[in-house]
Amino acid sequence: MATISAGSAPPKLEKKPVKFSNLLLGAGLNMFEVTTLGQPLEVVKTTMAANRTISFGGALSQVWGRGGVKGYYQGLIPWAWIEASTKGAVLLFVASEAEYYAKSFGASDFVGGISGGMAGGVAQAYATMGFCTCMKTVEITKHKIAAQGVKPPGTFETFMEIWRKEGIRGINRGVNAVAIRQTTNWGSRFGLSRLAETGIRRVSGKEDGQKLGSLEKILASGLGGGLSAWNQPIEVIRVEMQSKTEDPNRPKNLTVGKTLKYIYSNNGIRGLYRGVAPRIGLGVWQTICMVALGDMAKEAVEKLTGEKVTAKH
């Protein structure tokens, strides 16, 4: 039976200073995520959520028909890039700070991870994601206008049209649904990833403060990201609230509650889970980028700048 000496106590939790390099790191990781697999998975997921009768294969064909490979990157420039370059910095900064304060009050890694993720998700939604997410969804769903024989307006023309008609509320339509999605997204992703890390530590005998290897971190993040797709109904609600779909039966001035009732009455419980397969893939990829690669990149930056890594956020 292994014994733990007095000198093998867990490392003391220390508050790290806020650094500009961490903000740049968060933005860079999110730009990498969205430009690689992120946007194609986002487009397929949104297409299925907005067209709740088509299959995964049908969504792939529909997206390809909108421009081949370019169809999978619809909405990437400028909206997804604007969103990625800002929300990544917000997430990494707010989540790290919130996780630290939660742990300083005695929270476990699991509870600290959930707290950090939820705080980071809410900050993302209201600080930067509202109008970007709305405009991405408009870009992806406005092909329905073209199907009616009308040439759809350009990106910025669409933005200005919404601004003139509805102002700030119009371009932030569905922001409350985005906030609910983000707080449950990142609360789940960080929390479940930290829980998976704890399990991996127990299995591998690293419960005495040893760091996990890169592959172990990626495995933990993949599990956390995939399992976090449980909240797909709020994502389908968000897409419907922001969609350019014209349906005379759809209620005006949609709220989260009205949209839930509308989707359920038309498509049942399965409609609320449309797009869950690409969403699982997206969740895995985003969490690997922002949790596993985020942790590893922060440690690498600290080593390069000559700072000792004293605590794990």
From TrEMBL:
Gene3D superfamilies, A to Z: Mitochondrial carrier domain
GO molecular function: tricarboxylate secondary active transmembrane transporter activity
Membrane topology: Multi-pass membrane protein
Subcellular location: Membrane
Gene responsible for this protein: YHM2
One annotated Gene Ontology cellular component of this protein: membrane
Record keywords, A-Z: Membrane, Mitochondrion, Mitochondrion inner membrane, Transmembrane, Transmembrane helix, Transport
InterPro entries in UniProt: MCP_dom_sf (IPR023395), MCP_transmembrane (IPR018108), Mito_Cit/Oxoglu_Carrier (IPR053017)
Gene Ontology BP, a term: mitochondrial citrate transmembrane transport
Entry's transmembrane regions: none
Family as reported in the entry's similarity comment: Belongs to the mitochondrial carrier (TC 2.A.29) family.
Protein name listed in UniProt: Mitochondrial DNA replication protein yhm2
Repeat positions for Solcar: 18-100, 111-199, 216-300
SUPFAM superfamilies recorded: Mitochondrial carrier
